[in-house]
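Predict the holo structure. Ligand: phosphoenolpyruvate.
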Amino acid sequence: MLIVMKTDATDSEVQAVLRVIEDLGFKPHSMPGATRTAIGITGNQGAVDPSHFENLSGVAEAIRVSKPYKLITLDLRPEKTIVRVGDATIGGEELAIIAGPCAVESRAQAFAIAETVRRSGARFFRGGAYKPRTSPYAFQGLGEDGLKILAEVRDVYGLKIVTEALDEAGVDLVERYGDMIQIGARNMQNFSLLRRAGKSHLPILLKRGLSATLDEWLLAAEYIMSEGNYQVVLCERGIRTFAQHTRNTMDLAAIPAVRRISHLPVLVDPSHGTGKNYMVTPLARAGVAVGADGLIVEVHDQPDHALSDGAQALTPEQYEQLVSEVRAIHEVIVPAPVS
Ligand code: PEP
Ligand code: MN
């Protein structure tokens, strides 16, 4: 059920609807928009009777939701969500760029890369302190020491920190040191982690699972939102296909497909999406061209010595070139407002 309030509905009329929903034992999700407030309802097993709401003052419509998702959808919120990370945004007019190493390896490495990232004008620094590795014998990340280095990067360079939580305890730690919690592809359907992320005050970067359909991905976002955290950013990072010329196949069509259904911002990750250094910039350009709100990209000061994902890491020079190219494309797609 979706309750659409009249454009002139007052705050107390909205509050009265929220109370009715709570009295029925359900959870209301109020989404104030540019022209009207809509209220999503979750926690109900069967259909909710619209007559509970139709005659309440300020209510324009009570609509039955036939789709599997309730909160990620444009029906609830027709305008795009702008996710705010401190004074930086994702989903607004500015192209969001999240850049940094696959893994934090040392303070010197993180600082050297952060210098490049800051110079490029990007607002976000990425770097894993906890790495989901295919082999248990591969470098697993520096753990909390890595998070401390990231917190220093934030203080010194003013960059927002995006870093992965592998489990619920990891969310507690990232909340202490970071600005945005990454949920990785392998964890996209870790439902207890999604629910924990839904209770966090930090925004969430939700990567698409390696074999996730669009619906599965959006329902993973729905898990987070159903717990009350509406600050969710989707990220297309490539899916597993029969292709052998790339590490993953970056599904560019997912960007307009998400856009048609959801108000959530969506990024592309051309690093994991290709796995190959020489493909990262072309696919970053393509991602921005199909309408992504930004990108997350791996950069290393010494790719040949990287402890993880070196083959897809850009050098600082390549990264700077990428940023100037994607910004030029973004300007064509989203013309700057005339001042
Ligand atoms: C990463 O960003 O380094 C990462 C492990 O990503 P993914 O979950 O998309 O594989
Ligand atoms: Mn990586």
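The pocket of phosphoenolpyruvate (ligand 1) is lined by residues 102, 128, 132, 184-186, 207, 237, 272 (CB under 6 Å). The longest strand covers residues 27-32.
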